[in-house]
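Extended Data, panel c. Modelled sequence:
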Amino acid sequence: MTYPLIVVPFVVLTAIVTVSTVRMPGFRRRMASSAVTALVLIGLTLVFDNLMIAVDLFSYPQEHLSGLRLGLAPIEDFAYPLCAAFLLPALYTLLTPRPLQKDSA
């Protein structure tokens, strides 16, 4: 089970970075947008991974997989688009400078 173990750090990093933006403005909107993006990316991954595996462009050694599949695509392949959909907007939010607030006193 090599591939599931490779995915774990990406998922953990994504969760940590995303949760660190909870108190920042626009969190709910960002999560809704990320969820829609994740669904689209997962749909595309489902279609194209299955096509590429079906025409034998690549294959995965069974001993390195969890055994769970969606069609021909191993479930591990879906972690990357999921992480990208949530991690990139969260990183952008954290790295974008915010304007300084003036004292109203």
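The chain has a mean pLDDT of 91. This feature is highlighted in the accompanying rendering.
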